[in-house]
Design goal:
Chain B: This is Cell wall polymerase. Chain B: It is found in: Membrane. The complex is a heterodimer. Chain A is 38% helix and 20% strand. Chain A is built from 23 helices and 23 strands. In chain A, α10 packs antiparallel against α21 (568-582) and α14 runs parallel beside α20 (497-509). The longest helix of chain A has 26 residues, at 5-30. Chain B is an all-alpha fold. Chain B has one domain (2-184, 256-415). In chain B, 69% of the residues lie in helices and 3% in strands. Chain B has 17 helices and three strands. Chain B has a three-stranded antiparallel sheet, covered by helices on one side. In chain B, α3 (49-69) packs parallel to α17, α5 (116-133) runs antiparallel to α16 and α5 (116-133) runs parallel beside α17 (397-415). The two termini of chain B are 28 Å apart. The relative contact order of chain B is 0.14. The chains are: A alpha+beta, B mainly alpha.
């Protein structure tokens, strides 16, 4: 009876066996996922963070180095803390922070180490080092953060920080991992690939308790870390420090260039911050403060800010006119004061006098000759041709587009051209009269302090410039590689330069606080309208180079809301040039240094004017409210 | 000497051979699972499980000799006393037992621990065999079915109190020998249907299940007869099924402790459960098995095994050691050996002249089958993780000895199958 049922039972045995064989085939042979998971189980990559490249100044003085910090690591399983309060006090953290961090670590893994507290400074580590043995499950992992020899150059150097989620997503190299440091602004960002070096990884096998069990595949996959490339900058650290000292308490910037090489000696902006504030454990706290400051501390005015060009632009007008041949160096032009408002008197002007006196009406005539060249009988068509020629010529001086300095964020400025005016005047009926305010650097023209410093370098070089740059070479394994640059010529000729330089020399002599004892300088003052229709003054602008016959330094200084260029900016530029050329400041009755450091640039007349404007405004407001 | 010759001549050597292979393979795998490349312990070291397993294997040899020397008739005559003794031990273990892994299932005897539920299976098998072999007992009759179920489920009741879900499940193995002896197939069909319904409840929403059941019911009516009684009965069954599904779902949601719920849910969706928590064992076991590949990483070369990633690896998860180090080939070999062993046992059972021995033989095959199925299924994620050992393979004296005794009692009976069994 029921004998056949034996086959059902035996069949069940075979069936289950087959089910197992198939399922096992699926997970063992077909599914490769488990092999990866198994490796992930046992492999613990130990990252060796590379040393980030150092940054030197032009004289091989160290500016940025690496400072050891310590990440406190935790293996949650091994943690046994008798007195949490004591532990928190030792580390200087709140109890809530302790609990939060422990929770995070536990979520990651009970047995694998994770970061408990980041970037403990060397000093802090010294304090806890001897007591750490009492707390099982904690150990430190050394890393480095950026250290700075001087509290300057914050905006030019930039800072480093942990790579953000967004940057990780955008990274196409596949190099970066969460937790990596990356250069965020300035040179740190520009030269990130060179500075960062290469991470080293050694793969260790660990058992389930996180204990090392030798290297994975005998270290075949391990890599050693490669330190980053050192940067040799063009900055003169001492001069930079002096320049930043002069700018303290003001709003503005200084750019100084070695004209023969295009090397940027000084790039200073104010207000700014101390670079060490954005390094190490305090980064998060300080960054919020710095970034939200209404004074825009992360805004590098030297190459990001654009201003109306002002009178310094007259030198460009003169150079273009001479190059085009619309004026001759010695040509005397009679100027009356019928055109626009002018500080200069009426009379006969050659180009040198035009620059020396900064005659508005002289340059109005120069611009007219540039734009209205009678190449077309039609006034409007003729203006178009002339303006196109003018705009192209101006752009050759490095205006209207970034110069390509090697830190991010450089502004283009603006040189209005035919297209620009066609966009504004839809029916294109604009002519010379529309654009004549360009003649004296007003109107739509916008320039950066860097471009103006470059202009000074062009005049110093008598007709060419070299792309301004902050890094001149790279050092790797003791070998220095220098960057190569080409001269960029700005016009067809250069024999007319002496006339311009003569005008600038005389202009310098006529500027009370500009001249330097025993050194002949050439300069041009300027005043950039601040645009804001309020009681604050225009920006003080000054451009110069020295010595005239063998230029070593070309400079542009912008001091915002400080009035005439001849006062605040000229004095500052004079001091910086003297310090660079002589190494000291010759004291005299002008007390230039005290004048700048005090920062009270306005004379009595200007102060009265401000007062008057304020009262006027108050009256207006009162009237409007009635 | 002549008598010894006859003993060895009648012994079923294929089974003995399979037994030896499985036990020795188990022993090597136990060593692999506790092996640490940095310590100098060898396979014989008694401070390791492999060394102790060797002692248990030695004990098994002694047990085998004793069984082969003892009279084969005592098993039938002493079955009720043995059963009673183990029921008492199951009661005693609830009071005096040591609590290990949350279950009070073990007597701690100092040098080793004894798990009475492992041996109770043998006693239950013997008593059930004796009851069934009574000529008056017909498994087609409800009264006798009830008695048989009582014999089975009395020890289950006590084991559930420990609680030890895995060991309890194994008692359902007796359905197979009962089926062989005439238990109506409807029991298997109903049990299978409810099991299927239960699984579906965990996977699908209740409305979907209701629709499926309804369709199946309608097809059934169309296919059989459209008589009123058939329609009424089918309708009742549909209602019962949906009700069961609903009740089961509700009970699972609200009455089952979270850790057990997770153990079940992880089978269907490994992402639904914390891989470091309830899903840890299964996840790690699958990683070890899956990473073994086609031919394995080699003896003592399994990284997941030697670095201790799989918990309970020398006992319940011993199969993961085998699968990691010997791959699909090794796993397949062992699975084939088990299937051959079980089929061989049924062949032996079938050649018995007496119902008692035949039923007992099927019981042994069925118990091995359940252990084998549940154990391997749980290591590869086809069944919830319940702690039951792989016969002959897993580390542990109680398990090895109880299976050894069960198997060799059968072989002893088989040796005397031509002799008259009398009481």
């Amino acid at each position: 009876m029921w004998d056949n049922r034996r086959y059902i039972i035996q069949g069940a045995f075979v069936l289950i066996g087959l089910v197992f064989l198939i399922k096992l085939f699926a997970i063992q042979v077909l599914d490769k996922d488990y092999r990866t998971k198994a490796e992930r189980n046992i492999i613990q990559p130990i990252v060796q963070y590379p040393f980030r490249g150092l940054i030197y100044d032009r004289n091989k003085q160290l500016i940025v180095y690496n400072e050891p910090v310590y990440d406190l690591m935790v293996v949650p399983k091994d943690v046994a803390i008798a007195d949490t309060t004591e532990f928190c006090e030792l580390l200087g953290i709140e109890r809530e922070v302790f609990l939060e961090n422990m929770k995070t670590a536990r979520t990651y893994s009970q047995v694998k180490p994770s970061v408990f507290l980041k970037k403990i400074s060397h000093e802090e580590y010294g304090k806890i080092q001897d007591l750490l043995y009492k707390y099982s499950g904690f150990f430190v992992n050394p890393r480095t953060v950026r250290g700075y020899t001087s509290p300057v150059l914050a905006n030019e150097l930039g800072y480093t920080g942990e790579i953000s989620r967004r940057q990780l997503d955008r990274d196409t190299t596949g190099y970066y991992r969460s937790g990596d440091n990356i250069g965020i602004t300035g040179l740190e960002e520009q030269y990130e690939r060179l500075l960062s070096g290469k991470r080293g990884v050694s793969y260790k096998q660990v058992n389930v308790r996180g204990i090392e069990k030798g290297s994975f595949k005998d270290g075949a996959l391990d890599t050693v870390s490669v330190p980053g490339t050192n940067l040799i900058t063009t900055i003169d650290l001492e001069l930079q420090t002096y320049a930043e000292k002069l700018l303290k308490g003001k709003t503005g910037s200084i750019v100084a260039i070695d004209p023969s090489t295009g090397e940027v000696l000084v790039m200073a902006t104010a207000p700014t911050y101390e670079p060490k504030m954005l390094s190490g454990r305090e980064f998060g706290k300080n960054y919020g403060k710095i970034a939200s400051d209404s004074a825009k501390l992360l805004f590098n005015r030297a190459h990001m800010a654009t201003y109306p060009a002002g009178s310094v632009f007259k030198t460009v007008q003169a150079l273009i006119a001479l190059d085009e041949g619309v004026i001759k160096p010695n040509e005397q032009i009679y100027v009356d004061l019928s055109g626009i408002g002018d500080h200069a008197p009426a009379g006969y002007y050659d180009v040198a006098r035009g620059i020396e006196k900064s005659s508005n009406n002289y340059f109005l005539e120069v611009m007219r000759r540039l734009v209205v060249q009678r190449k077309s009988p039609n006034y409007i068509a003729d203006s178009r041709i002339g303006l196109a020629l003018w705009a192209d010529a101006v752009k050759k001086f490095g205006f209207g587009a970034p110069l390509g300095i090697d830190i991010p964020g450089e502004a283009s400025g603006l040189i209005p051209d035919v297209d620009y005016y066609d966009k504004i005047y839809v029916n294109k009926n604009w002519g010379y009269s529309t654009v004549q305010s360009l003649s004296i650097g007003q109107g739509e023209i916008l320039v950066t302090p860097l471009q103006v410093a470059n202009l000074a370098a062009i005049i110093a070089n008598r007709g060419y410039y070299i792309q301004p740059h902050l890094v001149k070479g790279f050092e790797k394994d003791g070998v220095v590689t220098l960057k190569q640059f080409e001269k960029k010529y700005t016009g067809k000729g250069s024999d007319y330069y002496p006339a311009i330089i003569e005008g600038m020399k005389r202009s310098a002599i006529g500027t009370y606080r500009a001249p330097i004892k025993d050194i002949v300088i050439a300069s041009k003052t300027g005043t950039a309208e601040n645009g804001a229709k309020d009681e604050s003054l225009d920006h003080s602008v000054f451009m110069a180079f020295a010595p005239v016959d063998d230029p070593k330094i070309a400079i542009a200084v912008y001091i915002e809301n400080a009035g005439w260029g001849g006062r605040a900016a000229a004095t500052t530029a004079s001091l910086v040039m003297e310090m660079y050329l002589k190494g000291y400041i010759e004291k005299d009755w002008r007390n230039r240094e005290e004048f700048v450091l005090k920062g009270d640039f306005l004379d009595e007349e200007q102060k009265r004017e401000i007062e008057r404007k304020k009262q006027e405004k108050a009256r207006k407001i009162a009237l409007e409210q009635q | 000497m002549r008598r010894r010759d006859s003993i060895l001549k009648n012994l079923d050597w294929p089974i003995v051979f399979l037994y030896i292979i499985l036990v020795v393979m188990g022993w090597f795998n136990i060593f692999a699972s506790v092996y640490d490349p940095e310590t100098a312990f060898n396979i014989f070291d008694v401070s390791l499980s492999s060394g102790r397993q060797l002692l248990f294997i030695g004990g098994s040899v002694i047990l085998i000799i004793v069984i082969l020397l003892m009279d084969f008739r005592i098993y039938e005559s002493f079955a009720p006393y043995l059963y009673a003794l183990f029921i008492l031990l199951l009661m005693a273990v609830l009071v005096f037992g040591a609590k290990i892994n949350g279950a009070r299932a073990w007597f701690d005897l100092g040098i080793f621990r004894l798990q009475p539920s492992e041996f109770t299976k043998l006693a239950t098998a013997l008593l059930l065999a004796r009851y069934i072999s009574n000529n008056n007992v017909k498994l087609t009759e409800f009264k006798h079915q009830l008695t048989a179920f009582f014999i089975i489920f009395l020890p289950v009741g006590f084991i559930m109190l420990q609680p030890d879900l895995g060991s309890s499940l194994v008692y359902f193995a007796f359905v197979l020998p009962l089926f062989r002896e005439g238990l109506p197939a409807i029991y298997l069909i109903v049990a299978g249907s409810f099991a299927l319904l239960g699984v579906l409840t965990l996977l699908l929403p209740i409305t979907t299940i209701a629709i499926i059941v309804l369709i199946v019911g309608i097809i059934w009516i169309m296919a059989t007869s459209r008589s009123v009684s058939n329609i009424v009965i089918t309708s009742l069954l549909i209602l019962l099924s949906v009700g069961f599904s609903y009740g089961f779902g509700y009970a699972f949601e609200n009455l089952v402790p979270k850790y057990q719920k997770d153990r079940i849910l992880v089978i269907f969706d490994s992402n639904s459960v914390d891989p470091l928590g309830a899903g840890y064992n299964l996840n790690q076991s699958k990683i070890a098995i899956g990473s073994g590949g086609f031919s394995g990483k080699g003896f003592l070369e399994g990284t997941q095994t030697k670095y201790g990633y799989v918990p309970e690896q020398s006992t319940d998860f011993i199969f993961s050691t085998l699968a990691e180090e010997h791959g699909w080939l090794g796993s397949s070999l062992v699975i084939a050996l088990f299937v051959i062993l079980m089929i061989r046992i049924t062949i032996i059972a079938e050649r018995q002249k007496f119902k008692f021995a035949r039923f007992y033989g099927y019981s042994v095959a069925a118990i091995i089958f359940f252990h084998f199925t549940i154990n391997i299924a749980m290591t590869i994620g086809l069944f919830p993780v319940v702690g039951i050992p792989l016969p002959f393979f897993s580390y542990g004296g109680s398990s090895l000895w109880s299976f050894t005794i069960m198997l060799f009692v059968l072989l002893k009976m088989d040796m005397h199958r031509t002799q008259v069994l009398s009481r």
